[in-house]
Write a structure and sequence with these properties.
Elements (H helix, E strand, L loop, with lengths): L1 H53 L7 H21 L4 H16 L16 H23 L5 H32 L3 H16 L6 H44 L6
Length: 253
C-alpha cells in the first residue's frame, strides 16, 4: 500500500513537472511570437514614416497620403494590442488619427510636376516612388484599398518613373551633342526611344517625345554623314598633296 502511494506521488510529480515545462515552453513560444510581431509592426511603422517623409519630394495625392497614414495607424493599433501599456504608441495613434481626420496633406500632381535638373535629386525621387509603389501593392494585396484607387495611383507613378527616365536620357544626349559626341548622344536617344516603344500605351507625352527623338537622331545622322564627307575630302586632299609633291618638277639650284 505504501509502495503504491509512493509510486503515485512520483508519477504525480512527473506529471506536474511535464505540465509545468510544457506551460513554460508554451509561454516562451508565445513571448517569442509576440516579440516577432512587435518587430514586424515596428518595421512597418518605420518604413511608412520614412515614406511619408520622402513624400515631400514626390507628388503624392491626398489618397496617397491617406494610404500611408492608414497603414501606419493599422500597425500602431496592432502594436498597442501587444504592448497595451505603451503610452508612446497610444500618443502616436492619436496624432496619426487626427491627421487622417483633418485630411490636411500637401498633395501634388504627378502629371504637372517639374523635374529637377540635379540627377541626385532625381534618384531620390525615383527611390521614393519605388518604395511607395511597393507599399501600394502590399496594401492592395491585403484588401485595404480598392482596385480602382490602386490602379489610379500605381499608373500615375509608373508614368512619372517613365518620364524621369526619358528626360534624363534626353538631357544626357543633348549634352553629348553639345560636346560633339555624336556617338554617345545617339546611344542615349536610341535607349530612350526603345523604352518609349516598349510601353503598351501611347499618350501625348510618349508621342511628343518619340517625334522629338526621331528629329534628334536624324540630325545626328546628318552630322555624322557630313563629318564623314569632310574626312574623305581631307584625306583626298592629303593624298593629292603627296602626289603633287612626288611629281612636281625638281628645283634647280
Amino acid at each position: 500500500m505504501l509502495f503504491a502511494i509512493i509510486v503515485g506521488l512520483i508519477l504525480g510529480l512527473v506529471v506536474i513537472v511535464v505540465v509545468t515545462n510544457t506551460m513554460q515552453q508554451q509561454k516562451k513560444k508565445q513571448e517569442e511570437e509576440r516579440r516577432r510581431e512587435v518587430i514586424k509592426f515596428r518595421a512597418i511603422i518605420d518604413e511608412t514614416e520614412e515614406a511619408v517623409q520622402n513624400a515631400a519630394g514626390i507628388p503624392l495625392s491626398k489618397e496617397g497620403y491617406a494610404i500611408l497614414l492608414n497603414r501606419e495607424l493599422s500597425a500602431l493599433k496592432g502594436m498597442q494590442e501587444l504592448t497595451p501599456g505603451n503610452k508612446e504608441v497610444g500618443n502616436r495613434i492619436q496624432q496619426v488619427q487626427t491627421k487622417i481626420n483633418s485630411g490636411d496633406f500637401a498633395a501634388g500632381d504627378a502629371e504637372t510636376m517639374t523635374l529637377p535638373e540635379n540627377e541626385k535629386q532625381l534618384i531620390g525621387i525615383i527611390q521614393g516612388i519605388k518604395k511607395f509603389r511597393i507599399i501600394l501593392r502590399s496594401e492592395h494585396g491585403k484588401g485595404r484599398i480598392s482596385s480602382e484607387i490602386f490602379v489610379k495611383e500605381d499608373k500615375k507613378f509608373e508614368k512619372l518613373q517613365l518620364k524621369i527616365n526619358i528626360e534624363t536620357q534626353m538631357r544626357r544626349g543633348k549634352v553629348a551633342m553639345g560636346k560633339n559626341m555624336s556617338g554617345s548622344a545617339r546611344q542615349y536617344f536610341e535607349k530612350a526611344k526603345l523604352t518609349l516603344e516598349k510601353q503598351n500605351y501611347a499618350d501625348e507625352y510618349i508621342i511628343t517625345r518619340l517625334g522629338e527623338i526621331e528629329e534628334l537622331l536624324s540630325q545626328i545622322a546628318k552630322d555624322l554623314k557630313s563629318a564623314n564627307l569632310d574626312d574623305v575630302k581631307k584625306k583626298q586632299s592629303e593624298e593629292n598633296d603627296d602626289l603633287d609633291a612626288l611629281f612636281a618638277p625638281k628645283k634647280k639650284w
